[in-house]
## 1
Amino acid sequence: MTNASGKPLLQLDRVSVSFGGLKALSNVSLTVNAGEIVAVIGPNGAGKTSLFNSITGFVPITTGSIQFQGAQIEGLSAHEIAALGVRRTFQNNGLAPTLSVLENVLAGLHTRISASPAAIVLGLPSARRAEKLAIARSRELISRMGLSSHENELASNLSGGQQRMVEILRAIAAEAPLLLLDEPAVGLSPPMRAELGSIVRELARARGIGVLLIEHAIELVMQTSDRIAVLSNGEKIADGSPDEIRSNQTVLEAYLGHG
């Protein structure tokens, strides 16, 4: 599924990123379509985080171009790119520790509240309805991950895995057109991983959200992704369906083993 312009939701064309004399990415081309889940795998140092950082404006690209919804975004600030509808999670926790679980997830929904600022300040009925819908959506997501008993608990009091899940729920709640998940399975129990995969597939299939996923948990990658891109030393060495990646001898030898 492409966007209304007929182009992919996200398109990287021969993107390179250098830090001094070190090339973190070299001529990487990649697309993500609306409603598609694309995973990026590779060993530490392969360039996966540099890829995410270049898309989201945290590091400048050296050469190439990045388009989101048909418009060039390289050179924009991280804040400007996020405002366009690109949401991401980070390997290290980005929660507000003094807010509750519910408040943190609600923070992800602030851009989707339909009431005007004036209506919110004045407490008008439209604002109250929008707030009730936002709370209901947040509680639905919290419940699906088995965290309902913690919804009023401060984020700082949660375990590492629970904090990770709340951060992911906050990003998911916004239902932005493009969602970048950076190793979301780290610290999650197997049941949480399975439910996370289910939620991500629902966002893509039912809501048309494009998902770009960095993940070392190969079983989650294989079960969730439509397509997998493999990076090695900053270069893309493979791009295909899970079945194609499974049968790619170079990938098997380098990353997945022979089993």
## 2
Amino acid sequence: MHPPETIVVEVPVEVPVEVIVEVPVEVPVHIPGEGGDVWVDSFDQPYTIDGIDIVWLIDKSGSMNQHSQAVVNGIEQMILSLPPAGWRLGITTMAWQNAANTQEFPLVPGDTVQDAWDAYNNTGNHGAEAGFDALYAYLVEFL
């Protein structure tokens, strides 16, 4: 008799391994009243006059057409609330293309609601909504 042969069989066995390593992680925390990023949009007015310059940028896109009367009513209410002197009110659209081509002189004390309607109607009907670009175009090209 011969001794039994030994057979070696390799069987892969998965062994769960858990590695615990501490990794520092920075977590930004906002503390109210403790600074933070501040973004400021500004412009330099080319010249100044005594008094206050007010500019209304009006959204005249299609969704706002139904609100034109309310807008002019707001302009009227504002005009009636302003002091009797020392201001002018420019009215333009939020579309920079129209703002740069505005020919309507700003409203001043003594102007009427009809003058406000005329200014509103002369702003054009371009539907763009450009905000600061429109204001910049209005101030640089018109005033």
## 3
Amino acid sequence: MSSIAKESSFFSRICTDLCKGMCCDPWWGIISYTIVKEGVISNPDDFKKEIAKGIHDRVQRITEVYVTNERPARRLFNLPERYTVHVRNINTNGNKLSINVLAMFAFRCIFLSPDKTCLIHPSFLGGADIRPPQCGFMGSLNAHIGEKGYCRIIHAAQTNNESAIERAIEVEKNASERHYKEGFQTAEEAAEAVIGRVREYCFKYAKHLLAGERQAVLGRNDPCYCGSNKKYKKCHGQ
């Protein structure tokens, strides 16, 4: 057996015997993006619907990309089991609100069997690889932390240190369980949580973006919130 084949066999055993498909059960779709809101939040329910729609759109993009390489193609995922949306930070520029979020969706791969066997893995199909290209990136030995294809467990396995492998598996398991627990069953619930963070931020730092709060925060002779350098009474306070 060649060294490449031995190496491939070794890391395959790490996935099947030790990891047991942890990265696929659930499989986390992760997208970072910015939600922009112009003007006062006069109707939080409408804003929540906008945020939920953005979440649904990104879920759809993932399900459309992760399909088998065959004709006809088959999707790997249905809807996520959990929607975890972290607000990383919020910024304001005049009357514009920018919300930077990290969305994490817990999918269950349709082709992962109850015993954690990937039913479309080349080793199961006699060498034929019909997986999406993205699946093949996972566990890349050349990837570093934060790069596509990085796997903490595979990189720990390169050390041949059983304790290091066990620690890596424990870290990944705890992180997955924590994100799953923090998530919501629907995109609408996740959007409501984002709105809650926005309300909290605006109440502390940008009350002028909350309907009914502007007069309470700004005097008529105060600088206008929009950054025009005019007094509020001569700008948006007219």
## 4
Amino acid sequence: MWMRKLGQTGINISALGLGTVKFGRNQAVKYPDSFIIPNDKTALALIHQASDLGINVIDTAPAYGDSEERLGRLLKAQRQRWTICSKVGEEFIGGQSSFNFSPEHTCFSVERSLKRLNTDYIDIVLVHSDGNDLDIIKHWGTLDALAELKQKGLIRAFGMSTKTVEGGIAAAKKSDVVMVTYNLANKGELPVLDYCAEHNKSVLLKKVLASGHLPAGEDDPLKASMELIYSHSSVSSAIIGTINPVHLASNAQAARAAI
């Protein structure tokens, strides 16, 4: 199925989502090649292409430079078409990342994202982990703060972009969705996917193509990647960032062929 349920939230999302880190940031990124941030005309053409391909998920974050502000302008006439996923916890200023997981900063960050995105609500908000998943969950109360914002109607679903198996499972227990890394080169977080499948929680995947660093050995690494990720029932959507229209079309074609 191309359109999939996001856990028990009532939200339906496409099996492929568009990541937009490259819309707003080209510093301190881990892609193999440098790139130029696209102008508004080029970015809007990519958004329209994604929509034509049946994609309805667009992923952003405060740590993605000015991605949120740009999407607020570019999506203004088509907000209802998109399921927007943003994040809290990480800031990127002056070429450096910093983290703040306090409930106060979480509320501030969501309010700021609402303004930047020019919207009354955000569909999905994830905690942008620094790698200390369990510490964030147990000691900071970030997920509890997001749960309160959901009750207020400012967000529709919440969860965490995690970096450890223990953190992914703990986050799944307390939220609607988790975002994890899963690809041909890194299958270590498979237990999180298994847990979510058993407990009717959804998974969003990041780094599906290993940020352009997939290992050699596959005749068609894109095809193999898509077949791997969509073979697991917990996967609601794979978020792949690109500013290349050819890559976007190829990703969508490979995803549909694998489903």
